[in-house]
Design brief:
The chain contains ten helices and eight strands. The protein has 254 residues and is of the alpha/beta class. It has a six-stranded parallel beta sheet with strand order 3-2-1-6-7-8, sandwiched between helices. The chain binds adenosine-5-diphosphoribose (APR). Adenosine-5-diphosphoribose binds next to α2.
Length: 254
């Protein structure tokens, strides 16, 4: 067992659990994290260079191509045991708030309802000029080996360029989701930080706020992060291994 023996009973007694997730939770679905090196056409960049308003303004085809490639990838992947365990946990504890930095939609596909998606979604692009939502064509986008530049679609209302529905570096987080996330971390009694490097603010401050408000913070990550010192427990393991085992220990099948 990777976690302390007291953790399952603590989980069983939790009234409000916050699960805060990052790219590591989707790693075992076959989706690279942001700290993994990019490959193919994008090998010469790092993710942070492509994920900015300036990059889109300078080279929209490169940036749209990258996000469409990622959308094509995630639509071909399936939620893993970690996503499913989080959806199951919502049925077990009196209250669960799922806060994610992921844009892949795998939590929803695993059955989690209304996650607070702090960094937006690959599946909800909108016009960069007038803000109108853009409906993507049905079906899977091509997944060109190594990636390809693609011209962004034009907005049907104003002709502006459609942009990915994600939050880029330097942009504000969606206000309502952020407010709900802050309220949840201030009133929860337990927070799981799962598969995030805890490097990107303001999202990364949420577990710190939870600890300051008196919640216990538990980190599930095979690597150490700057959050380690704040955590009551650091569980060094993969999300898809640890979370199902924790749920099974807390609520053994009769
Ligand atoms: N299970 C749990 N954690 C894992 C696993 C796994 N199987 N595999 C990797 N990890 C951990 C890594 O050790 C790392 O700490 O997941 C973390 C992934 O970190 P990042 O790639 O930095 O992802 P994240 O924290 O979600 O990034 C935050 O940065 O680029 C931006 O907007 C983007 O939302 C993203 C934000």
């Amino acid at each position: 067992m990777l976690f302390p023996p007291t953790l399952p009973s603590q989980l069983r007694q939790t009234r409000h659990l916050v699960v805060f997730t990052g790219a590591g939770v989707s790693q075992e679905s076959g989706i690279p994290t942001f700290r993994d090196a990019l490959t193919g056409l994008w090998a010469q960049f790092d993710a942070e260079q492509l994920a900015t308003p300036e990059a889109f303004a300078a080279d929209p085809e490169l940036v749209w191509g990258w996000y469409e490639w990622r959308r094509g990838l995630v639509l071909r992947k399936e939620p893993n045991a970690a996503h499913r365990a989080i959806a199951e946990l919502a049925q077990k504890v009196p209250r669960l708030t799922l806060i994610t930095q992921n844009v892949d939609g795998l939590h929803e596909r695993a059955g989690s309802r209304d996650p607070l998606s702090l960094h937006g979604s690959l599946h909800r692009p909108y016009c960069s000029t007038c803000g109108r939502r853009h409906r993507l064509p049905d079906g899977l986008p091509d997944l060109v080996e190594g990636g390809a530049r693609l011209p962004p679609p034009e907005c049907s209302a104003c002709g502006g360029l459609v942009r990915p529905g994600v939050v880029w570096f330097g942009e504000a987080l969606p206000g309502a989701a952020w407010e709900q996330a802050e309220a949840a971390v201030c009133e929860c009694d337990l927070l799981f930080s799962v598969g995030t490097s805890s490097l990107v603010y303001p999202a990364a401050q949420l577990p710190h706020q939870a600890a300051q408000s008196g919640a216990q913070v538990v980190q599930i990550n095979p690597a150490s992060t700057s959050l380690d010192s704040v955590c009551a427990f650091n569980v060094r393991g993969s999300a898809a291994q640890v979370l199902p085992e924790l749920v099974a220990c807390a609520w053994p099948a009769v």
